User: Fold this.
Amino acid sequence: MSDADIARHARRAVIASTVGTMIEWYDFYLYGLVAALVFGKLYFPSQDPYSATLLAFSTFFLGFVARPVGAMIFGHFGDRIGRKGTLVATLLLMGISTVLIGLVPTYESIGIWGAVALTVLRMLQGIGVGGEWGGAIAVATEWSKFDKRRGLAASWPQFGSPLGMLLAVAALTLTSWAGSPEWFETIGWRIPFLISAVLIVVGLYIRLGVLETPVFQQIQEKKQIARTPVLEAVRGYWREIVLTCLIRTGQQAPFVLFTTFLLAYGTKNLGLERSFLFNCVLAAAALSLFTTPLFGYLSDRIGRKRMYLIGAFMMLAFAFPYFWMLDSKIPFLVVLAILLSLPIHDMQYAPQAAFIAESFPPSVRYSGSSIGYQLASITSGGPAPMIAAWLLHTYGTSTAISTYIAVIAAISFTSALFLRDRSQDDYSTNEGWVREDRGTVSASIASPSA
Assistant:
């Protein structure tokens, strides 16, 4: 294959990873946004407003709990049979689950079974998105063309997240404009879920046209496929997995608060219009389309770890001003708080992909990076809106939530100090890696037929 062909396929791989990730995050975020707005009323109507909100967010949390399960299932196959085929499976699982959510009857029609169906489908969503991230990053970065620009290349699948958020918020905004609040709560909210069927077809068309990555082909040829990738990753690289989880603590939880919890807090506690908050989040997500690749590029220039540490520090510094501005109810300050929130988040989110993927050798890269990344869903992102709701209910002030954000940002900063920056290491080989269980990578690999 010529250099021009390699470059063309590498670019297509990045595009496929970005588009597929965008679709999966559209599906995932859509649930969180609707849960904050109507699920409590539609599926838990017998509860008081506070309890209904917690129950709605609990189904949201279960999607996060399922993500490490998806990381292990699809991580195994991604490291055993290849990145490409595994990503097609995650897209199908995520998309079909999302369409079915749009068809679930409410409590009024089938009682508690509506909430049960939501819970099961949300968990399937979580399994799908849990297997997506590690493969998307591997597909986008395991090309020699990106050896000097891996931070930028890896930031494009991350770019799929704000793009998915943008589409989810836009879809809900348009449907809310199409009818009355009553219409939105009965029919309108379902339409964006059903639209996912079209997105699945688009995503499959793009992903099926991508080649397997050269790095995976190389470890296949050298018969270095791990027998049990998940087990090998946990045994040999548990330290990297733990640190990967911890560095995400101060990134993922604030993001959930800045997007999902904000809608419930802004409408119920501050009396702000839902459409106003939607538009603000929409504008912030649009800003992320520029700041995500920007900070990915900067991580190639100043170093992955340095960029991440700057981002964690900025999140800590922003924790209190964010709620001060929101609580002022002054439109300009509210808009400013929301517009600043996602770009500050992106200072960690953009370099994170390459920082984490570079922490694992190719034979267990899909498994190790996915498990570490998705464990944070249980420790950070999943419980974040419930913790915030509990803090607000218990202490009656947003200062408690700001303190929570500051603490978890400090955890991210400290953890990043201990995770080695391997951006200058050889990304394509298993050679030279030292396992935590004192073995070597070559001692735990075998041919695919083993």
